[in-house]
Amino acid sequence: MDISRKLGILVFTMVPAIIGGGIIYGMAGSYVPVVVYEILLYLFAGAIVSK
Q: Which residues cross the membrane (predicted)?
């Protein structure tokens, strides 16, 4: 996997991180679930990129 594809995957995961983080904060009203969501999302994206 070349560097441009890796960067594309990471940029593509930024959109769900921003939008999803806002939705989760709106539902939960706390930043703790947002942090957990962000960590899980970035671990998943890191696993894809590291292949």
A: 7-25, 31-49
